[in-house]
Description:
Largest sheet: 6 strands, antiparallel
Structural class: mainly beta
Number of strands: 35
Strand content: over 45%
Strand order of the largest sheet: 31-29-28-32-26-35
Number of domains: 3
CATH architecture of the largest domain: Sandwich
CATH class of the largest domain: Mainly Beta
Amino acid sequence: MKSMKVFLVASLLLLLTVGLASAQSPAYQTSFITSVTYQNVSNATANVTFSFYQEGSGTPIQVAKTLAAGAGSSLFIGGLTEIPTNFSGSAVVSSDQPIVATLVQIPQGDTVKNRPLSNGFSSASPQVTIATVLKNKFNQTTKFSVQNAASGAIDIKVTLYNAEDSAAAPIVVDSLNVPAGSAKSYDLGTLSAITAGSFNGSAIVTAKLAGTQTDANIVASALELGTSTAKFNDAKAYEGVSGGAKTVFMATALCNVFGGQSSFYAVTNTSLTTATDVTVSYSGGKTETKNLGAGKKGSFAACTVNDPNYSGSATVTSTATDIVVVGKVQDAGRATAFLGEAAGSAKLALPYVRYTAESNFGAGQNRQRAFIAIQNVGNSEVTNVVVKYLNKNGEVVGTHTIASIASKGKAGSNASLATLTSGQNASALTEFGYPEGNPGGGFGGAVIVEKAGASLIAVVRVESNVGGTKVAEDYNGISVP
Length: 481
């Protein structure tokens, strides 16, 4: 079978800033160690090779694994003797079967408690948009990485657009001769090209084969980190987007609900020459419209037009140009980020799903609960959407069947809503993804969402209970052909 590849960029980190994390440090100074959660979405055992690239190096460090059909597992970078400390870079995952992957950033020290999440990429393109980038704005600063997905060295061009000053000239940063597989990182807090003390905007990244005008493929991801205070939820991650679309779907839209959660959308106009009108249409019937100039970003808050206790989904449309959207959810504890989706799929894979019993979650034992929001982006109602919960060996231990999802509407799922598969121990769901719920122990739990002929997207919110306060981060369900 033809080898499949998944690119893992941005924050494949191992103690990037050793010694800086402390109880008083903001998230911007916190160290992270990456765990790669990956899922075999085929019906056969996968032979998987991880090729790790230190930033600036084209020489990979390789680790081989096998993964049973349907199984989800994790590879903790901090536990690999092959990877040196202070590693910061990227990876390419090759497999003889289709796989998907989600990166889990595990904070070190006593400050940050939530775990930033982002997905790997099965394809790449010569242009990537990062919908929001910040420097000391809203007490946040962005670090992002761009990975070379071509077969040879490339030149990278980053163009930063100011969202608050339409007359400001774009800021351009060039990086030359980035090796194949390697990534180039950009820290807006230290980037010399940004001379102002703060910046609020977006980034459009393009690439060429080194020394030529021939397009080269890239992928990108970002970490958005708190800068001013030692907050426990001040770290989030999201992916760059290849191109954009005139219609983008958001699987969750909230206004002061579920303990005060509210959603916000950052919308970027990907055109460098043409303005556009952008409308956010909420599933409850309310709308909001703004004009975005060429290359500019606009912000939409669900509570601007929706009443408190609103929970739904949204569709974002543009009249003239393609757009990219990043969604965020905030309350007293949560601070999450996820991508809008241009299209749905009949089958979605969720590589990183955990669900612990209330006795463990409430005790604050650093365990997680995953809640899945599924949106039907098709033009008609869908019925009997099946959500399958699979253990580390790829066995279906529980199934949740959603009777109906209206067009553009959403439904929720979690392991407590699933029906236990005959012959499975109850702990397979009550401690889903944890050693108590897996045969022989060990970590690993994944989900498949499917309905033939449907067009579905999903956002997974992974929550932790830290000292009685809930923190969380989001990632998108991954389309399976």
